[in-house]
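Justification of computing resources. Each target in the renewal requires a structure prediction run like the one illustrated here; the chain below, 493 residues long, is used simply to show the kind of job we budget for.
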Amino acid sequence: MNPLKKLAGQTVIYGLSSVVGRLLNYLLVPLYTRYFLPEEYGIVTELYAYVAFLVVILTYGIETAFFRYSQKVPNKRTVYSTALISLLVTSSIFIFIIFSSTIPIANWLQYPNNTDYIQFFALIIGLDAVSSISFAKLREQNNATRFALIRLVNIFINIGLNLFFIIYCPYAIEKGLPSVDFVNSVYSEGYGVGYIFVANLIASAVTFLMLLPEMIKSVWIFDKSIWRQMMIYALPLLVAGLAGMTNETIDRVLLKHLLPDTINASAEIGLYGAFYKLSILIVLFIQTFRFAAEPFFFAQEKEKNSRKTYADVMKYFVIITSFIFLVVTMLYDFIILFLGSNYHDDRGFLTVSILLAANLLLGIYYNLSIWYKLSEKTKYGAYLSIFGAIITLSLNFILIPIIGFVGSAWATLVCYFCMTTTSYFLGRKHYRIPYPIKRISFYLILVSTLFFSSIYFNIGIILKIIYILIFITIAFVLEKPKKAVISNPKLFD
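Resulting structure tokens:
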């Protein structure tokens, strides 16, 4: 099978769980923005920002190391069991530490009355960290169907419980429904956003149980030699992951501390978190792509035309993400209606547009990062991410006090631009891939031209749709296989 077709097929299946799940989760945003004030939603945004950091620490790059050493070590089962045992031990230690220090952590976060939030998140992070290696095993085995099924179950449980606690329970109590006795036994009025975390915990626990057969069937061998090799490979990825999370989430933490005292920081965090959600389609595609691409790239390494394949993947990735950017920006006036009226802000369009562009660059960076993973020069991933983190932190400290969360969006864009360009030139030196730079640049210039012209001329919805169709048409014409290529069936074997 043509490798690009194989990757596309895997991406579609992984995408089923991600797209369906994220879109359904996306529909939770208007639920949250209508039932909770910006300052309440700000708590959710802030705590999940910390979670993102902790998940990176608790998985410490071992997923990517697993993919790498599954290709290098003859006994894949030993590689898996070693990684699994490592994660079980570190996650258990983490949960113990958090439960032992709940009160001081809650005081530090300025949520002294919500110590249960801290314990919920400790369990969520621990369960998700252990589950991650079993998910990685399914990806390595190309078992995308089971991967997607388990993730969909997780998503439906999470969403179902959100709807149950936030909508059904208050309604049942108000109307005195027959289920009111049961509702009163599991629901407490006033707990509010806490039920978002309860739903997440239950969903993570069910996911862990569904992955338990993979864990039980493990050979339960801990190979110290393999573990040391994996850690040497993975630890730079941990540093890169932490720095990467700094780039992705530190803005929501800094907003609380850098905004002037005259501004309601929690409300601003809530607004920014909601606007970030509107860039979800590009983030969604990137995540879906990564699920399929990472094991695919390692598996393709030994193929004769692997570098040409990597180049083609990059080109099509840019086309798709550029299209998503154009759709969201052109249809922003409709998309913003998903948010409650409390979240309609004049800064929304600018913020969303900047974040979309930033995430497009982030996706390109993820594609480029294959050079240091394949060449086993993962230290460069750490260097690049630290470089980006310095830019992010510096610009956030400068811009947030001046222009608020819009400054955070700009900092994110500049950071990813610098990381992407630097990674490209380093990759040319250490692991050269023949990316079609002219063609990729053309698409980026095309989408930028359409975007800025729509703003300059203040065009209506009809012309915006025409702009989208123009992009699709040009991409189709340029990328349509030539007859001579189609006539050669060997190219599609």
